[in-house]
Design a protein that fits this description.
Blueprint: E1 6-10, H1 20-28, E2 32-38, H2 50-69, E3 75-78, H3 81-92, E4 96-100, H4 105-120, E5 124-128, H5 150-159, H6 209-223, H7 227-230, H8 243-247, H9 253-266, H10 271-293, H11 315-322, H12 329-341, H13 346-359, H14 364-374, H15 380-391, H16 406-413, H17 418-423, H18 432-435, H19 443-448, H20 464-480
Parallel strand pairs: 1-2, 1-4, 2-3, 4-5
Helix pairs in contact: 3-4, 9-10, 10-15, 12-13, 13-15, 14-15
The structure holds flavin-adenine dinucleotide.
Length: 481
């Protein structure tokens, strides 16, 4: 049996516990070299956005500190992993590279290239499952085809039994001792500088495995009960806020899944809340299933009929949408929350996305790109599938003709306007009756609240009724083709 060192190649799995590849490496008793490679090349069109880079910096910092507390050192390198890792393997005499599977098309390409180049030097790459509950290629319908509808997909996943329970922490590692060149994290310039728009983000987030575990515990203790109903209300702290931790692999989905199952066993009254939460994790799995089987889903309409949709929105409206100046308070609140914190509540994501595609007739890819740059949880699978879902072109999508009325949505899910008042402070004084549609408020009410429309806050950039008719006409055009 080999006693050569093993390289553990960290990717989107920035944790030490319940990480099957790392556990397997530790179990061999061979020395391990932990490495992260910043790859500026392979993701080409999908380099991490600004918010993701902020998160990545802090997550790597946290992982390096964790490794240090176990006596190890994270080697940071920059370039093409398919070249850098074989060079490193030759340098230290490693015969194995372990890692977690990643499902983005570029990541699979890099894995294949690395595997080939390692084989040339008598080393081998072994990817382990670590980011998903189920392997996306193993879930198939009775005809052996991938699922295109969520409910039967999720039923099929669950029918295979519970996913593997999380493993405990590894207490002793044996590290490869040689001192190797490692780049300083700060030299990668992942953090914003001038201006530092993320200066206060540590109030909202604690990237890293420790932060992820705290988030999970807090969610279980404070918000899981009532999640099923509460998750739709943006002013409540009812959702887990785990998505970025899951995206960067700071916590395994298996750990989250089993924490829910244990909670259910202790508190059977939480049954429907835990099931609802698990089905949301299921949407994450479904997005990866779709990306795995239909790798062009980030770029092309899943339903081909939508490829010729007559998008006609303009740059001025796109810019008003991005900066939260559309004149629809719920849309503007969401867009401003996104810019200020790197996230947006799921219900509001659906409202702003529908507004972009259906009221402004702007291509879903423009919205997907803005989210990619600004979300801390920006995730190729979930972002692309969710945008296509809202636009009507995706698998199991919301029907195109179901057009959210932003005022009705806001009245339903933010009845007293608490969320709007927080993110659109210029409207904070308006009575509940007008907070969702300030343009209907009498002049004396507006001036009594210190608001002059088009000076302090815009009039709506489009009229809901005519925008709705325009959207339905555009839809009829593609349907008629
Ligand atoms: P919770 O309600 O606590 O849900 C638990 C977990 O389930 C989440 O952390 C997430 O991993 C998963 N999840 C929940 N809803 C979905 C969903 N609809 N699709 C896939 N996974 C889901 N989610 C991302 O992780 N990354 C994205 O880039 C992303 N882009 C989106 C774009 C649009 C237009 C829309 C409508 C939704 C998008 N979502 C995305 C899905 C969803 O909004 C977020 O996962 C959720 O808001 C994260 O908050 P949470 O962790 O508190 O969610």
């Amino acid at each position: 049996m080999s006693s050569n060192p093993i390289i553990y190649w960290f990717r989107q799995d920035l944790r030490l516990s319940d990480l099957p590849g790392l556990a397997a490496a530790a179990a061999t008793g061979r020395p391990i070299l932990p490495v992260y490679v910043l790859d500026d090349h392979s993701p080409s069109d999908w380099q991490p956005g600004a918010a993701s880079r902020w998160w990545l910096h802090h997550s790597l910092d946290s992982l390096a500190a964790q490794l240090c507390s176990h006596g190890g050192r994270l080697t940071l390198l920059r370039g093409d992993p398919a070249t850098i890792i074989p060079d490193l393997a030759r340098q230290i005499g490693a015969s194995d590279v372990f890692c977690s599977m990643q499902y983005e098309p570029w990541a699979r390409r890099v894995e294949n290239q690395l595997s080939t180049s390692l084989n040339d030097s008598d080393a081998q790459l072994t990817p382990f499952k670590g980011a998903l509950l189920w392997n996306p290629s193993s879930i198939r319908n009775l005809s052996g085809q991938p699922y295109k509808v969520f409910t039967p997909f999720w039923r099929a996943c669950r029918s295979t039994g519970d996913p593997t329970p999380p493993t405990g922490s590894i207490n002793s590692f044996r590290w490869h001792e040689a001192s190797l060149r490692s780049e300083p994290l700060a030299s990668w310039n992942l953090l914003p500088a001038k201006p530092d728009w993320a200066a206060h983000w540590h109030q909202h987030w604690q990237p890293g495995e420790h932060g992820a575990m705290l988030r999970l515990q807090q969610f279980l203790a404070e918000s899981l009960s009532g999640y099923g109903d509460g998750r739709d209300f943006p002013d409540r702290q009812s959702t887990s806020r785990l998505s970025a931790h899951l995206h960067f692999g700071e916590i395994s989905p298996n750990r989250v899944y089993h924490a829910m199952a244990e909670h259910k066993a202790i508190d059977p009254s939480a049954d429907s809340d835990t099931d609802k939460f698990l089905s949301e994790l299921g949407w994450r799995e479904f997005s990866y299933h779709l990306l795995h089987h239909f790798p062009d889903i980030p770029e092309r309409e899943f339903k081909q009929g939508f490829a010729k949709f007559p998008w006609s929105g303009n740059a001025q409206q796109y810019s008003a949408w991005k900066s939260g100046m559309t004149g629809y308070p719920i849309v503007d609140a969401g867009m401003r929350e996104l810019y200020a914190t790197g996230t947006m509540h799921n219900r509001v994501r659906m409202i702003v996305a529908s507004f972009l595609c259906k009221h402004l007739l702007i291509d879903w890819r423009a919205g997907q790109r803005w989210f990619w740059d600004t979300l801390v949880d920006a995730d190729l699978a979930s972002n692309s599938c969710s945008w296509q879902w809202v636009a009507g072109s995706g698998a199991d999508a919301s029907p195109y003709f179901r057009i959210f009325n932003p005022v009705t949505q806001a009245r339903k899910f933010d009845a007293k306007g608490a969320y709007i008042r927080r993110w659109v402070p210029e409207l904070a004084e308006l009575p509940d009756r007008y907070i969702h549609e300030p343009w209907t408020a009498p002049q004396n009410v507006l001036s009594g609240c210190g608001v002059q429309l088009d000076r302090d806050y815009p009039n709506p950039i489009v009229d809901h009724r005519s925008a709705r008719e325009g959207a339905l006409a555009a839809y009829a055009e593609v349907r008629g083709q």
